[in-house]
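Forgive a beginner's question, but might I ask you for the amino acids of a protein and the C-alpha cells describing how it folds?
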Amino acid sequence: NLLLKNFLKSEIFGGQLELWRFFNKDKSLTDIEIPKHGNQIGALIDGKFVVIGSFLNDIYAKILLKNLDKNNSTILELGGGYGKFAYYIIKRLKKFTYIDFDIPETLSLASYYLSKCFPEKRNFFYGEENFNSSTLNNYDLIFLPPWEIENIEADSIDLSINKNSLGEIEADAAKNYINHIHRTSKYF
C-alpha cells in the first residue's frame, strides 16, 4: 500500500529519526542500527536496519549510561521484553552483568535475541543451575523469572530499569518489586 508506506516513511520513521537527530547531532545512523535476529518489523534507513523503538531506546540508553561505569556495571531490568532496550545499553559497555526478570515466555525471546547479539558473552539460563550471588560474577547475561528477584543481594545492582511492566501488574506485586529494587540498587 503506497499510502501506508509513505505514512510510515515520513511520519512514523521520519518523525522518530528527526527527534533522534535533535539529540544526536553529527552522529552516525550506526548508533541506532539493530541486529535483525528473530522476526522483527522495521525499516532500512540509509542501509541501516531500525525498528520503531530504536530511536528513543538509543536516546534513553545514552542518558542512563551517564550514571554507569562503562568498564563494569550490573544492570537489572524488570520486564525487558525481547531485549531491545537492553541491546542499546549493553552494546556500549565494556564489561557488564545484565539481569533480565520477565515471564518465562518472554525470557525465551530475550535470551535468544541477546545471546545472538552478543555471542561472546556468557549466558545464564534459569533452570540450568541454581541462581546465587556468585552467578553475578560468572555470567554476563542472566535470564530469570520474577520470583528470583528476592535472591539478589542488597546493594549489588548499579542500575535497575523498568519501562512499562510495573504499571501493568497488581499493586501489591509492584510494591514488592519496588521494595526489592530499593534494597538492591543504586539507581532506578
Remarks:
- The mean pLDDT is 93.
- DSSP finds six helices and eight strands in the chain.
